[in-house]
Amino acid sequence: MIHQKQNRMQRMVRAALLAGCLSLGTTAYAGITFQFQYGDPAGTGFLDPIYGASRQAALNTAAENFSSMFGSHFSNSATIVLTANAQNDPYSGTLASASSYFTNPGSAGFNLGEVVRTKLQNGIDLNGNVADGVVNVNFGANWELDFNTPPAWGWGWYPGTHDFYGTLYHEFTHTLGFSPVMTQSGTSAFGMKDGSWSTFSSFIVDKNNNPIIDPHTFVLNQGAWDTGSVGNWGEGGSEGLFFNGTNAVAANGGFLVTLYTADAWEPGSSVSHLDDRMPGIEGTLMSPASYAGPQMRDYSAIEVGILKDLGYVAVVPEPETYAMLLAGLAVLGAIVRRRASVITMG
Fold it and tell me: Which of the four pLDDT bands, split at 50, 70 and 90, describes residue 262?
């Protein structure tokens, strides 16, 4: 009878512990609410009389599911308004693009007015009634628009289908500030080299962990930028440019995180993505290129680390969940001690 009571108690505690663990894994936050303003000419793109409704539905589905994914990692929430534009160019190498809008603070520093990031982190709307950013989608590509249908891999003559949702998750992340907002020559968003820089750019370093932008004078090291920003992935990733945020480096096993630097500068790609040729980074959401077939739809530990370094607040378990776990562990510990004492005495 005693053993039956102990077994029943153990089952109850295990159930409580399991419930606590499930709560830890599924805590949900409000996330981001996206609103879209369609900028296409009447009868085209997202406003096409035949395809417009399904395109808008797919974009909203991507936004809602991205918000859930983001909310599983971070507690920041706000309503973000994006202008949505569509193209129809089957010959373009660009599937989609997106960016926050920016404001100029008028002084030097890592203080570029990143509208989306500022709104999510500080609750301040730098743009007022104007949209917070923009997203562009090329519907000339062969998209899979059904969220639950895996995109087809390309093979031989068959081009396959592109993952609309993985691609949009990637682009939405750029609006959060995952970009240095720098040109090939090293100028910032407002055409300045010694002025207002993005937060992301404050973490860009060379292979020796030397900042590309001086953190005191905010002057660009032009030589280091020119050398590292193109064609220097060689030697197993030891050259090029890197991200040195504390959280990202910790997630990368203590190593600097390699940024993508192609043999020739690629606008919108160079230094704005992770270098997926490096071990541990391949296949991540923020890789520079997307191929036909299923794509990543969640952040890796490194990407979570980068966003934490950019100022996003990671989710934490609710206090009552901790209390449940601690209480369960205490009771389970008492049972184990009780059983041990019985065995010792017997």
Answer: confident
Contact 148, 45 (CB under 8 A): no
- H/E stretch holding 307 reads helix 301-309
Secondary structure class of 82 (helix, strand, coil): strand
DSSP designation for 81: E
Is 0.85 topped by the overall pTM?
no
Residue type, 83: T
From edge to edge, which strands make up the β-sheet containing 242-243?
Answer: 204-205, 242-243, 257-258
Residues 206-222: tens digit of each pLDDT: 999 999 999 999 999 99
Please report, as a single letter, which amino acid is at residue 33. Answer: T
Tokens 């035949």 locate to 50
Containing 249, the helix (H) or strand (E) segment is helix 246-251
* 320 pLDDT above the threshold of 60: no
Burial of 243 per CB tally in 10 Å (0-12, 13-18, 19+): buried
pLDDT of res. 159: 84
Residue 283: pLDDT above 90? no
Nearest alpha-carbon partner for 46 in 14, 85, 96, 97: 85
3-state secondary structure of 227: helix
Closest Cα partner for 304 from 227, 248, 346?
248
Helix (H, G, I), strand (E, B) or coil at 78: strand
| 23 token code pair | 């709560």
- The alpha-carbon radius of gyration of the chain (Å, integer) is 24
The answer to whether the beta carbons of residues 258 and 242 sit under 8 Å apart is: yes
Burial class (CB in 10 A: 0-12, 13-18, 19+), 303: buried
- Would residue 191 be called left, alpha or beta, if left means φ above 0 and alpha means ψ between -120 and 50 degrees? left
CA-CA distance, 12 to 334, in Å (whole number)?
14
d(CA 130, CA 144): 31
The tokens for 185 are 């020559």
